[in-house]
Amino acid sequence: MHDLKKQAEAVLFAAGNKIEISEIARLCRTDVNSLKNALKELKKDYDKKDSSLMVSDEGNFWKLTVREAYMNLVQQINPHTELDKTTIETLAVIAWKAPILQSDVIKTRTNKAYDHIKELVDSGFLIKQRHGRSYMLKLSQKFFEYFDLKDKKDIKERFKEFVDIDEEEVKKAEVERLKEEEAEKVIKEAEEESEEKSKKKTEEKTREKAEETKAKKIEEQDKKEKELEETKEEAEEIKTEKTEEKEEQKGTTEKEPKEQTEEPAEKEQEIKEEEYEKEEELKETTKQEKNNPKNQIKNKFNLGIKN
Predict the structure, then answer these.
(1) pTM surpassing 0.90?
(2) Ranges 52-56, 194-198, 303-307: which has the least confidence
C-alpha cells in the first residue's frame, strides 16, 4: 500500500492535471479498487499535514493541485492550471446566492453559463437537483474543502478577486424567479382546481348513474314481483277451477253408478212380478180346467189308454 501510494502521487504530480483512475491503475500496474484505497490514504495525508497542495477527486478523475489560497500565486506561472476566469465568475455568482436556480444564473450570466455549470457539476463543486422546470444549484462539501472556506463571509471575500458581482442583477434575477414561481404556483393551483372540479363532476355523474341504475333495478324488481304475484293469482285460480272440476266429476261419477244400480233392481222386480202373475194365471187356468167336466172325462180317457 505504501509503495502504491507513492506511485500514485508521482503519477498525479507528473500529469499536472486531472487523470482518470483507470489510467493511473494501468501506469501503476494494479487494480482500480486497490488504487482507489491508496488515493484516499494519500488525500488524508495531504489534509493532515496542511500542505499547500491537495489531492482532489472528481468522480473517476483524480489530480494533485494547489489549494485555492495559493491559486493567485501559481496562476501567474500557469494561468490554465485550474478553472478559467469565466467559469470562476459563474461559480462566484452561484456561491454568493446558493442555493440558486439555474435559470437565475443563466439570466445573470447568459447562455454560456450552461457549459460552466456542467463543468462545475462534473468537477464536483456543485450539486444539481431538479426543481420545477429548472434546476436548483447547491455548493458541495468539496467546494468548501477545495477553496478552504467556512461560511458565506469567506465566500464573498475569496471570490471578490475574480469577479465583480452585480448584486442588483442577482436580486433582479431572484425577483423574476420568485415571480415565475408564483406564476407557476397559480397555474398549478388552477390546474389542481380544474382537476378537482373535473373529478367532482365525474364523481357526480358516476353517482347519478349509480342512482339511476339503482332506481331502474328497483323498478325492474317491483315489476318482477308484480308479475310473480299475478302469476301466483292465476295459478291459484287455475288450481281452484281444477279442484271444482274434480269435485264436479267426482259427484257425477258417484251418481251414475247409483242410478245404474237402481235401474237393474227395478227391472228384476218387474220381471219377478210378471213371472209371478204368469204363474198365478197358469195356476188359475189349470184349476179351472180341472174343474171342467169335459176335461175330467178326457183326462180319465187318457189315463186309461196309458194303462
Answers:
(1) no
(2) 303-307
